[in-house]
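Build the 3D complex.
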Amino acid sequence: MFAEKVIELLKEAERNPVTIDPFNDDKIRQIVEEMHSLFRMNMNDANATMENKTLWTTVQVRHSALERNKRCLLAYLYSRMVKIKTLRWEFGAILPPDVRELLSDDEYEWFSKYSTNLASYMRSLGQDIGYNGIDLTENLKPPKSLYIEVLCMADYGKLELEDGDVILLKKHSRHFLPTSECQTLIRQGILQQIT
Amino acid sequence: MELSDENIDLSDNEEEEEITAEVVLKTLQSAWQNERLAPEILPHRNDMVECMLGQIQHMERNVNKLPKTDLRATIHKMELSRIKFIICNYLKTRLSKIEKFCIPILNEERQRMESGTNYLTPSEYKYAQEYLMNMENHMKTVVLDQMPGNMQTFEMSKMADHPNMRSHVFLKANDTVNGVVLEDLAGEDEEIDLEEGSQHILQYKPIADLVKNGKVQLI
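Done.
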C-alpha cells in the first residue's frame, strides 16, 4: 500500500510526545524513493491516458498518495522542529552532546539559526532605553521566593554573584542562593533544588 | 508662542509619567492577561514594556543602595522579580503565538502595516520573517528538494495554522457596551449588552475588537 511507511514514521514520532527520537534518515529516504517511483509510474500512465481514459483514476490515486506522503513528511519535520525549539529554551544555545546526537545535521543547523534569531530578538528588547537586551529564557517559572536552597551535583568552580560575592561550587556542597542566578545552572544539571 | 506650547507639552508628559508607575504596571498586567487568554495575537504594548523596564532599572539602582540585610531590599527585590517575570512571560507568549501562527500573522501584518496599525513591534516582525524563512529553508533542504518535481513547492496556504477564533473565553466588561452581535451557527444573530463590571463566557470572535480597544478584559 502506498503511504504506509510515512504513517509508521509519524506513529514513531508520536510515541514520545515529550522527548525527541533520533532523526530517521533511512525511513525518510525510503519514503522519498516511494514518491519517485509513484511519480515515474504516473508520468508513464499520464502519457498513456491520451488514448486510454481508464488509467486516469489510477493516476489520481497515485497523485493523492504523493500529496499525502509530502504532507506527512512535512508534519514529521514540523513536529520535530517544535521539539527542537523547546530544547533551545531548556538548554540555551549550546546543546549537551547526547541531545545533539539526536538531531540530524540539517536540524542542528536549523537549531542554530533559530537560536541566533531568538538571541538577536532578545538583544533588541529595550534597546531604546539603554538596556542591552533581556534573556527571556530566564524567569520561565513564576518566582516563588528570592532565595532557594540548592545542592551542587558537580565540581563547577567559582561563581560570581551579581552583588560581587564569589562562591565556590563543589560537589555535594549546599548553598542558599538567589533564585534568578541559579536557574541556568539548575537546568544544566549542575545544581539541584532542595525543597 | 511655540516655545511655551512645547513647554506645556513637556510638563504634561512628565506629569503623566509621574502618575503612571502604578498605572503602567496595571496596564501591563491586563495586557499580559489578555495576551495569554486570547487565541490570536493582540496589538503590542511596547510603550508599556519599555516604560516598565525603565522603572525596573531605576528601582534596581535604588535597591542596590540599601544594605543587603535590609528587609525593604528583600521585599523590593521580590516585587522586581515578579514584574520581570510578567514582562518576560508576556513577550514569550507573543513569541510563541508568532511562531505558531507565523504565516497568517505575517500576511495580516503586511496589510496592517500599510494602514499603520501594526500589531507587532519591528523586532517581532523581523523575528517572524526570519523564523518563517528558516522553516521554509529547512523543509526544502531536508525533504522537499529530494521529492519529484511537481511536489517540491512549499505551499504557504497549506502550511498555515490559524488561531481558533471561535474558542470561548471568560471576560469582564470594563465599560458598558451595547449591541454586541453574536453570530449563531443557525444564522440567527443575537444581540446582547455587556454591562459594566459584568462577567460572561462568550466566543472570542465577536468580542475581539472590544479586547483590543480595552472595553473588556479577559479573565
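Chain A has two domains: 4-124, 147-194.
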